[in-house]
């Protein structure tokens, strides 16, 4: 080999060493970045962990806060509002109508009750509320609703029914914060969910509806004003008398339950013929230091329209779960390149909805095709390797599992408050009811898109309730799905309240 040949060989060797060094360097850097991702996911998992011991602490905190909220006005973040519903439906007969206003769609319902736990027929119509009406005047808003009801009745009865509904009782589910003054009256405290009809705030919502019905020539009587959780409890109780509580987990979340009237300490003058009273907990605002909060939750709260408010809701409800996942993926994208170049979409709030997150979580194709599709179409993230898609699924799982298990703890907290969890209530740890053979069958009605449509969420929730209660008590506690429960329940409450011409609950 000549000098030239040697020179070339040496140059080649140097070049290949350099290439190898670059490649090794890249691999090391890439491994380091991957390690960062794995560490961040592990940190998330640890911060969001819900071992059963922690869940039991949440159970206790929920029961204690419920007690405090009942003891005095403002005694807890839980408002524990009176609903003036003291008798839950059980065995009503006849045809009843209900309206449900609570979001972008409103619903009109007609149900035929056949007594003895039977619903003989139901018709439900969903109608979107035009965006312009959400910020109009109360007159325009309620005229729209009254007209829709009138058309519905005419359609159902081939134009023959308007005279037949004269004097008929109507249930009204209104899922906004309302200060109830009787079972059929209450004033709007504030609008939420994008509504802003200013002239309605602090007005009696039933009066507004009643006037609009008259303007449309509908002679009907609004006999019950309820929120969605109370409606769900009503229908649950109609179908199964062991139903003592109801939970809604949809866009937002809330719960209500049947309490002894004498336990409502802040309202000692409460007279109730049944000795009971449904309490609207407004549990979305529950807070406890035992809740496993992560830095992503803190950021979500700070950037929300209502910081320091609805802390529990922000960890568990449909409006927020997708956005928590988006925040985690955003951080992982900043710290590594496993999701490719940083997509600007990742910094857009609420761009990843909870149904899309659920679709990724439940993707069972071997190459996670659905995950890839949603990443591309929704977040503008393309050509993601399989290991990154797996990370995506893992993050969805951590966020959903925590949410479902916290709801489970909340439910057991309610059961604990009313002595239905087998421990004998919040003042003692003894197994009272159960050991003395008194543990009773207990049903909780559950409604809302997250529970009914997100299978993994529902399974995690059911599993956690059984885990917290333990195998001896769990068989006594049943969670029952109530689709459309809130509207049907309002019609039932209209039925059970129509028989009585005066309110049976008074505050002295
Ligand atoms: P609302 O709470 O507005 O009365 P729903 O009870 O129907 O309405 O719940 C709707 C919410 O449920 C949506 O905002 C969404 O977060 C959640 N949701 C609906 N479908 C699914 C799904 N397939 N997977 C996960 N979440 C869902
Ligand atoms: Mg709802």
UniProtKB/TrEMBL annotation:
<dbReference type="Pfam" id="PF03727">
    <property type="entry name" value="Hexokinase_2"/>
</dbReference>
<dbReference type="InterPro" id="IPR022672">
    <property type="entry name" value="Hexokinase_N"/>
</dbReference>
<comment type="pathway">
    <text>Carbohydrate degradation; glycolysis; D-glyceraldehyde 3-phosphate and glycerone phosphate from D-glucose: step 1/4.</text>
</comment>
<dbReference type="InterPro" id="IPR019807">
    <property type="entry name" value="Hexokinase_BS"/>
</dbReference>
<keyword id="KW-0418">Kinase</keyword>
<dbReference type="GO" id="GO:0006096">
    <property type="term" value="P:glycolytic process"/>
</dbReference>
<dbReference type="InterPro" id="IPR022673">
    <property type="entry name" value="Hexokinase_C"/>
</dbReference>
<dbReference type="GO" id="GO:0004340">
    <property type="term" value="F:glucokinase activity"/>
</dbReference>
<dbReference type="InterPro" id="IPR001312">
    <property type="entry name" value="Hexokinase"/>
</dbReference>
<dbReference type="GO" id="GO:0005524">
    <property type="term" value="F:ATP binding"/>
</dbReference>
<comment type="pathway">
    <text>Carbohydrate metabolism; hexose metabolism.</text>
</comment>
<dbReference type="InterPro" id="IPR043129">
    <property type="entry name" value="ATPase_NBD"/>
</dbReference>
<protein>
    <recommendedName>
        <fullName>Phosphotransferase</fullName>
        <ecNumber>2.7.1.-</ecNumber>
    </recommendedName>
</protein>
<feature type="domain" description="Hexokinase N-terminal">
    <location>
        <begin position="41"/>
        <end position="236"/>
    </location>
</feature>
<comment type="similarity">
    <text>Belongs to the hexokinase family.</text>
</comment>
<dbReference type="GO" id="GO:0005829">
    <property type="term" value="C:cytosol"/>
</dbReference>
<keyword id="KW-0324">Glycolysis</keyword>
<keyword id="KW-0547">Nucleotide-binding</keyword>
<keyword id="KW-0808">Transferase</keyword>
<dbReference type="Pfam" id="PF00349">
    <property type="entry name" value="Hexokinase_1"/>
</dbReference>
<dbReference type="GO" id="GO:0005536">
    <property type="term" value="F:D-glucose binding"/>
</dbReference>
<feature type="domain" description="Hexokinase C-terminal">
    <location>
        <begin position="245"/>
        <end position="495"/>
    </location>
</feature>
<dbReference type="GO" id="GO:0001678">
    <property type="term" value="P:intracellular glucose homeostasis"/>
</dbReference>
<keyword id="KW-0067">ATP-binding</keyword>
<dbReference type="GO" id="GO:0005739">
    <property type="term" value="C:mitochondrion"/>
</dbReference>
